[in-house]
Amino acid sequence: MHDEYVALSGDEVVAGALTQKPGTAGCISETGTAGACSDGTALDDPRSVAISPDGTSAYVASQSSDAVAIFDRDTPPQTTIDTGPTETTNDNTPTFTFSASEAGSSFECKLDGGAFGACSGPGASHTATELSDGGHSFEVRATDPSANVDDTPASRAFSVDTEVSGARLRVKGRSQQKGNVLIVKCKAGAAEAVTITAKAKAKLDPGSAGAATRLKAVKLKAKPAEAAAGQLAKLKLKASREDSAQILEALDKGATATAKLKVTLIDAAGNSILLKKKVKLV
Ligand SMILES: [Ca+2]
Ligand SMILES: [Ca+2]
Ligand SMILES: [Ca+2]
After folding, report:
1. CB within 8 A of 276, min separation 6: which ones?
2. Cα 217 to middle of ligand 1, angstroms
3. Per-residue pLDDT tens over the stretch 215-266
């Protein structure tokens, strides 16, 4: 048996190089030295071939001696992506780590089509160079030490989102005060769904009538709100009753006051944007 390959049945589906097992396992004989065939791993007068049920081993029996040569098929490795973004990430240089089912495998990577190329590393990892916002795909395939390539590469679709798109804040330039609580209303939203938080500081305008009664800034806050994509959510910023009283009294005496709004919009990917606006309190 000097041929490198033996014939296998046509309907076998296992791929990979077929190699004879090394050493005594490669050719086993009852009479050969230490169980191996007398002629190294070669077999005199091969007679019949048997294939293991899983298609990964072939056994060749000798006609002239009590010996069997064993060939094992080296199957391709399987590749697994272990870490990296799965859906949306606000990291535009995401890192993926991966592994293979066979030790000693090497890897090739591919981002957004094209050909497979070297992974960036270090080790079994790949870090993308700066990606645009939007959908992307990552693929990786392992090659085992016998050069068998995983022909079903591991892949992952994900999208990069690095900004809050179309953020808007609407607030009237003047806020008419009624009742005994200082209130400033605004509307905010974005082209995408966002969570909104809002706060403000109100202060009597220096030099306005009655301003001397209180110059310390008063804090206003609103309950967080959710706005669907393309929608504006209403937010009502309120001061405490005690703080309100002092500013409202000054307004009654003819003072003017200004509230500085800070509205933060956070998208699903965790990106945030701060919008600021000034409102005259009257
Ligand atoms: Ca293999
Ligand atoms: Ca695979
Ligand atoms: Ca976004």
Report:
1. 260, 261, 262, 263
2. 71
3. 678 999 999 999 999 999 999 999 999 999 888 988 888 888 999 999 999 9
Ligand nearest to the CA of 79: 2
Token pair recorded at residue 260: 């500085």
For 25, the 3-state DSSP assignment is helix
User: How far is the centre of ligand 2, averaged over its atoms, from the C-alpha of 100 (Å)?
Assistant: 9
For residue 175, the one-letter residue type is S
Domain made up of 168-281: CATH architecture: Sandwich (2.60)
Q: How many angstroms is it from 244 CA to the middle of ligand 1? A: 75
The closest alpha carbon to 232, from 273, 181, 191, 269, belongs to 191
3-state DSSP assignment of residue 43: coil
Among the bound ligands, name the one nearest to the CA of residue 15: 1
The fourth-level CATH superfamily of domain 79-160 is Immunoglobulins (2.60.40.10)
pTM over 0.85: no
| Lateral strand order in the sheet of 106-111 | 88-89, 154-160, 134-143, 106-111, 117-118
| 200 C-alpha to ligand 3 centroid (Å) | 25
Cα 88 to Cα 85: distance, rounded to the nearest angstrom = 7
CA 153 to centroid of ligand 3, rounded, Å: 30
